[in-house]
Amino acid sequence: MPDSLHRAALAERAARAGGVVARNQFRTELAVETKSSKNDVVTESDRDAQTQVVATVREEFPSDPFLCEEELVSRSGPETAETEPSVVDAVPETGPAWVVDPIDGTANYVRGLRTWTTSVAAMVDGEAVGAATYLPSMGDLYAGGPESATRDGTALSVSERTDPETFVVTPVGWWELDDRAEFGRLCTAVGERFGDMRRIGSFQTTLAFVAEGAIEGAVCPTPTHPWDTIAGVHLVRQAGGTVTDLDGERWTSDSVGLVASNGEAHAELLAAATDALA
Fold first, then answer.
1. Which long-range contacts (CB under 8 A, 24 or more apart) does 27-32 make?
2. What residue ranges define each of the domains in the chain, with the CATH number in brackets?
3. Which residues, in sequence order, are bridge partners of residue 140?
4. Do 50 and 27 contact (CB within 8 A), yes or no?
5. What are the start-end ranges of the H helices in the chain?
6. What is d(CA 85, CA 109) in angstroms, rounded to the nearest whole number?
7. For the purposes of burial, counting CB atoms within 10 Å of the CB of 70, is it exposed (0-12), middle (13-18) or buried (19 or more)?
8. How far apart are CA 253 and CA 67, in angstroms?
9. Measured CA angle at 126 (ends 267, 250), to 5 deg
10. Alpha-carbon distance 121 to 133, whole Å?
11. 85-136 tens-digit pLDDT
């Protein structure tokens, strides 16, 4: 099996393995901690699921580095430099890497809502060669390989709608209380330009829905994290969609902002993002 196909298949297996761990603890009594703010939450389930993802990958690629949302903590006691996972704080420009979000949508997870994912992207030389977004509580696994995108084995394709007045578009991102005016402007801009709007609470779920054609676009004018975006961006592109930065240039992991669409009326989505920043 070519290396890229091997890595794509492993991304699926790792996402599923981590997602099962998170699902087994879903809707149980959770100890919820906060990180940067009152609404930036994390649980032991996040850490346990991430540990499982990393362990699954390391069975086959023990020396590959990881870029993860949560801090990697050993569950088996002190590790040596030879055995502990290699951790990076940005996507490497050369060589392999794995980008992991053990629970994307933790705020949904802790509230008992089903829209959360375990997402894994396999990177080579700064580009995704495989990605998987698993929604354990729904049973759906979205996967993107070097030349394909599927949901539970069925090929994905972005929406064929062309009329913006029939589009469903999702504002994505996070704003602290002092910055909510920008979020309000974004919602207004989306509401004025498109037929309907959703706010799903999980960036990776949102991008998976764009990839399968359930919604036509997603707009995020704020900085993003690789673990929230890379797997979903790969899915959208492999399903025939378009993902750019706020200037309409090809999105990369260090871009500020993200606009994903079915490729139709993409300029309207960019205009909505611009309005939010005005």
1. 27/112, 30/110, 32/110
2. 3-152 (3.30.540.10), 164-277 (3.40.190.80)
3. 135
4. no
5. 3-25, 44-58, 106-110, 180-193, 203-211, 226-238, 266-277
6. 27
7. buried
8. 12
9. 10
10. 9
11. 999 999 999 999 999 999 999 999 999 999 999 999 999 999 999 999 999 9
Q: pTM to 2 decimals? A: 0.95
Q: How far is it, in rounded angstroms, from Cα 224 to Cα 244? A: 13
Provide, for the chain, the percentages of residues in helix, strand and coil under a 3-state DSSP scheme, each rounded to the nearest 5. Answer: 35, 25, 40
- The span from the CA of 221 to the CA of 91, in Å, is 21
- Give the chain's radius of gyration (CA, Å): 18
Tens-place pLDDT, residues 240-249: 999 999 999 9
Q: What is the dihedral of CA 172, 174, 180, 181, to 10 degrees?
A: -40
